[in-house]
Queue: 2 jobs
Job 1
Amino acid sequence: MINRPVTNRRHFLTLAALVAVAPFPAWAQSADKAAAFVKSTGDKLVGVVNGPGSASAKRTEMTQIIDSDVDVEGIGRFCLGRYWKQATTDQQKQYLSLFHEVLVTNITAKLGEYKGVSFTMGRSKAQDEEAVVSTTVMRPNNPPTAVDWIIANPSADPKIVDVVAEGTSLRLTQRQDYASYLTHNNGSIDALIAAMKNQVSQSG
Amino acid sequence: MRSFPYSRLSFFGAPRTLALLALVVFGLSGCATKPPASDPDALADYEQTNDPLEPTNRVFYAVNNGLDTVILRPAALAYRYVLPAPVRDGVHNVLTNIGSPIQLANDILEAKPRRAGDTTMRLLINTTVGVLGIFDVATKWGYPNHDADFGMTLALWGVPEGPFLFLPVLGPSDPRDAAGFGVDIALDPFTWIGTGPNHPGWTAFTWSRYALNAIDTRERVLDSLDQIKKTALDPYATFRSLYRQHRHAQIEDARNDNRATIPIWFPQPANASAK
């Protein structure tokens, strides 16, 4: 559904409006740059997933890609929501480092499942400070999945800030998971940190 | 395509036991306490979550989770173990094809002529060339599948979703989708042919279809659900979030599908040709 030709009247009008108001080259550029960025990051990820190498070597490679291409701190802050401001500097630091570890662990835990993965690029569009790049991810024995990548600062320093799979946002889901956990633990950030620590130690 | 983990996990058990269980559970549980107005952040969270029946919902989540662990998940694992992927795909395609009359009815009720056209072509092509729906030839011929159910139709008609519900057996829902589920059963021609004790064959068909649908859906989300239960701090809240986000995406997809209905042989106005 992503790789069908996509121009409907409304999109055309939006585009026309944007051309009229905004400096078109800059706008088109940031969407193109975002697309190129997603393509290169995607190729790197697919390379690691399908490549040879031990699980621990893959984890190291994966960590490098995440650190260079994903705005882990920004996502971490977003996921803590209104509790970010309530946290002490020390809690914030602890939380972010755990968040990084949980993210890496969750992604690397899925690597085996994703063996044989490939993706095709769809359209990309710039909105505000961000760009949305659509892709279709194919896995053996699985229906193709529509995945959108939200890229912040597409033209200067592109970073992935969210991944939206079939309409479900990774960071929003995580934020609501944490929010619910905090609500049921009297809003104690220490409880959240303890739970995350537990999670990291369990998955090794 | 577009079948998604958290939308419709359903299987049908003994209704009487469940009714009894529901009675017991409703007797035990209450409502979530609304935070006081002095804590605006907490209040905003509460309103955004829109889950006033959370304690009851969590009980049903636990019950369903238990049923899933002992019945549905093992069944799905066995299904995956016994049948190779191409056969499972064939089964999935047949089930999708059998469901297309409901889809078509909803496409029409949603006033989406191009979607109704796609569904009609899919039904015709896949039932014939696709050998009773085993092979999804229509997708290759340019008629991809899409989602349509009465819950989505109600949403497009402007009916609000209402608070979150976690239903026994059926799983995550809301009043709109629960109503939609019932209407979809009524819209299904297979509900009305050969019911009653004089048609044991049809009755067997209907129930096998429900069971197979449940196992097929569950098998397709085995890995995702295992992963979520392992990584989420609060799986219930995570499923709630995923269910809603996914439903919103399905509804927006339908809403934004405004492909023109001008025949191919007619002179096409510029920029209105295809979606």
Job 2
Amino acid sequence: MRRLRLSLWLLVALALALFALFALQLSRPKNEFVQSALVGKRVPDFALAPAVESHPGLSSADLADGRPKLLNVFGSWCIPCRAEAPQLEALRRQGAEIVAVAIRDRPEDVAGFLQVYGDPFTRIGADQISAVQLSLGSSGVPETFVVDGAGIITHQHIGDIRERDVAILLDELRRAGTGA
Amino acid sequence: MRRAQFVALLALALAGAGPVAAQDSLPPAPYAYRQLDDPVLEAQARELMETLRCLTCQSQSIADSDAPMAGDLRHQVRTRIAAGEEPEAVRQWLIERYGDYISYSPQVTSRTWPLFAIPAVLLAIGLLIIRRRLSARR
């Protein structure tokens, strides 16, 4: 009888522990971001035509020319991409070389976007069916990858770049440049 | 009067109820909504698409979603299958990029094996208990 009662209490304790686990896990904020599994790996081969007349297109070879870069994935139709434009401009002013992939975009829309929100890019490739975006493991716009001089992805920033992210990205870029 | 106000408010609410996220203006990718001509390949693609997670609408498969990115992913799946790739190779290509997250098809790995082992262990314990009870009764 004694042993039976003890095992019953154990059962109650087990159920309580289970509920405590549920409460803990449910109270944690859900992480909606899907990180790219390609961080630390080489940029997949691609070659994109220019997205707009004023800029050359972008290929994976451009990302392995010896200089570390930021690769910005954006769309002129994407609202958060407008919000991050001042931060991209700040990054450019502080010496970052920024290339871009325009997702599902038309040349006239890209030109309009650059005119209104500024143009921090040296190259913009047109990815009209998200093929390069998918091959990069990017799950939305905007996203920004740090790519070192050899074409290895060293960091991925998901979502729009806020003011506090500028220093982080500059630091990542510096580290990509020194190979640390 | 009240009623007229309500109707006006309702109309206003409905007018503003467009999609929250902005959408691009390009037409869908060629094979986003078009089936492959070969029904066998289309069936393979279909089966795979139903087990791939839409990235921008995370609780749907790409077969169920009308998000532009899901359409582009369907295009990738269909063109790769049409080019002769095995469905599991396409899944692997995506897992290399997005991790296990993109796949709805559960895999036994060093992290997930308890999910498969625990039911078997519980079943074994249950059978053991039943056997002991039955033999005790005799």
